[in-house]
Design goal:
By secondary structure, the protein is mainly α. 50% of the residues lie in helices and 0% in strands. The chain has 2 helices and no strands. The protein is flat, with a radius of gyration of 20 Å. 0% of the residues are buried.
Length: 74
Amino acid sequence: MLVVVVTLFLLVEVPLGVNMSVMIVENTANKALVAEHTRALPQHGPSTHLEHTPNTPGPSSTSFSTLSSCLATR
């Protein structure tokens, strides 16, 4: 059980440590190590196929705004 917990901890924390190290080096050296277009998450417009209609069940995984709009119509 300890091996599983330590392994999961390392799987989560090592990528965060690498990311933090890269950010520290970039900010200290004033040199970009990671391309600018790979830093931001892709922006998607509103999806109309996730909207809740009374005859169909609601979406299983959706954004908070879509979920709140579904709850507001009830």
